[in-house]
Amino acid sequence: MALVASLVVVLARARHTRTKSLLPTPMPICTTCTTAVPYLYTIYGSPQNLRLEQCTKCARDQRDEPPETKTHSFADPYVEHDSLTLLLDLMLLKRAVFRHLLYNRGTQPRQSVGGVFVDPPAGASREREKLRWLNILRFGGPLVCIDAFIRWSHLNPNQPHDLSPWTRQTMSALFMTFVGVCTETLAFHGGVICACFLVLSIADQLQRQRRISDIRREFRFSLIPLTLFYSSLTKLFLLFLLTIWRPSSEPIRLPFDVQFLDDEGIDREWIVRNVLGGMSAGFGLRVILDIHPFFTTMIIIAGWAVKTAVSHLVSRWVAMGGDAQMGEAWLAYSIP
């Protein structure tokens, strides 16, 4: 894992050096058309008295449209939305909320002081990058804990109700599950980051003559793990529902004979974790990479390959802990 982490750091520095020459000062973007804007809103006196900035490109595109079809041309309307709205839109996989959280979160506004407009300070971009890495730890930590609890519940479905959940055996199994989930998460993120570097390097060579989009110029490697965590919310929410609300013990008989739709033949956890989880992760990467969906699919498959290799090692470690059956169940649950 240390070798993978070192490789990721080297690749990230090389990519950052290349993108830094393209756009020295990162800027926020319009959540609708991804055009770079100098600021998102202007504050007049107090933080509650603000005016959202309009995107000139969106306003120009809607100039000839009839009034009944025109919509707002604000660069980022999510500035005024609460956390619950952001969470719901994240679970619905809306592009605009991904762009707001990944590119515009933490940007400094323009201020009006005595009738004079003061632009955001030039050094604010470094603070945004530090804040982004802090958000990865602050947001990813609880999600990994939730994922570990969901997996532990899946691997231990028949826990006796009259037994205290805080026994030494239970806590040991939960700790091993947490360590295993952390290891697999690091492996998956490392594989995706390395695959993104290779794909973007090839894409830059093939599209050297084309104009680079604003969203590509604003790309940083710190966006990748944050995107993967954001896109996993829908998957973890549905897996948590399956954990606390188990399917009926009696299968539902369908009026027609279709074997693959039977309850006994459907692995809901596998479908949610791999099919829905892979699609959500690919969607998130599509937002920040601005490349063809085929390449994002290849990136996710590369991340799965690295995660599968690490899962074999983790399952052996779990089996060495004294429970060979749990090691096999771990491997079956982890492999896509």
From TrEMBL:
List the GO terms this entry assigns under cellular component, sorted alphabetically: cortical endoplasmic reticulum; endoplasmic reticulum membrane; Golgi membrane
Protein topology in the membrane: Multi-pass membrane protein
Superkingdom field: Eukaryota
Q: Does the keyword Transmembrane helix apply?
A: yes
Subcellular locations according to the entry: Endoplasmic reticulum membrane; Golgi apparatus membrane
- Keyword Transcription regulation, does the record have it? no
Q: Which UniProt keywords apply?
A: Endoplasmic reticulum, Golgi apparatus, Lipid metabolism, Lipid transport, Membrane, Sphingolipid metabolism, Transmembrane, Transmembrane helix, Transport
**InterPro entries to which the protein is assigned, alphabetical:** Arv1 (IPR007290)
The transmembrane residues are 174-200, 221-245, 283-306
GO biological process, any: intracellular sterol transport
Where along the sequence do coiled-coil regions lie?
none
Describe the family membership recorded for this protein in Swiss-Prot or TrEMBL: Belongs to the ARV1 family.
Cite the PANTHER family for this sequence: ARV1, PROTEIN ARV1
Record's function text: Mediator of sterol homeostasis involved in sterol uptake, trafficking and distribution into membranes. Regulates also the sphingolipid metabolism.
Q: What is this protein called?
A: Protein ARV
Q: What is the lineage of its organism?
A: Eukaryota, Fungi, Dikarya, Basidiomycota, Agaricomycotina
